[in-house]
Design brief:
Arc Repressor Mutant, subunit A; Umud Fragment, subunit A; 3 domains; seven-stranded antiparallel beta sheet; two-stranded antiparallel ribbon; 11 strands; 22% helix
């Protein structure tokens, strides 16, 4: 299992390569993920290589390659129609399959597993998986992955304050909002999807 920091690092590298056609430097990885130093980026890159997710090429400045990952052309399932409780299935014209690759995957997306109950009133439960679009800005009321002080990541609803600060708001009426100076919070991505499994 990859740690949260390793998942973020892999997603950043994947997105960088997709956008620019070459791998990022360690400095760019550190800056893009809010790490305090290049050595922290190097630690996570090395761990990803040991996990078989990256290939490191000695002697090359940007010597990082993605290891071939799961092919996505088979990630689809039959789409039978729309359903409402108590009514028959309604046919959807011209659609025969739901392409999960289009729906969930992308060069700048990554998945995280939710721990805790801070977002339950948004329908996000402990153990759910969320799909996150990697970006460093977000609008008010979007649910974001926020990195606090370069170390602690949390899933919360974002609010910009009139004094320039940031509030991270739980979707749980029993938890108060968290207020931070803007420089302490780095947006890592915005929630775009959610997965929950029932049964085996």
């Amino acid at each position: 299992m990859l740690t949260l920091a390793q998942q973020r690092t892999l997603a950043f590298i994947r997105g960088f390569i997709s956008d620019r056609g070459h791998a990022p430097s360690l400095e760019e990885i550190a800056a893009g993920n809010g790490f305090r130093s290049k050595s922290a980026a190097h630690k996570h890159v090395r761990a990803l290589a040991e996990a078989g997710r990256l290939r490191l090429i000695p002697g090359r400045k940007r010597g990082i390659e993605l290891v071939e990952e799961l092919q996505t052309d088979s990630l689809s399932m039959p789409l039978l129609g729309r359903i409402a409780a108590g009514r028959p299935i309604e046919a959807i014209a011209d659609l025969e399959a739901l392409d999960l690759a289009d729906y969930l995957l992308g060069p700048n997306r990554y998945a995280l597993q939710v721990k805790g109950d801070s977002m339950i009133e948004a329908g996000i439960l402990d153990g759910d998986f969320v799909i996150v679009q990697r970006q460093d800005t977000a609008d008010d009321n979007q649910i974001v992955v926020a990195l606090i002080d370069g170390e602690e990541a949390t899933l919360k609803r974002l609010q910009h304050c009139s004094d320039g600060g940031i509030r991270l708001i739980a979707a749980n009426s029993g938890m108060p909002p968290l207020a931070y100076a803007a420089e302490r919070v780095s947006i890592q991505g915005v929630l775009v999807g959610q997965l929950r499994r029932y049964g085996p």
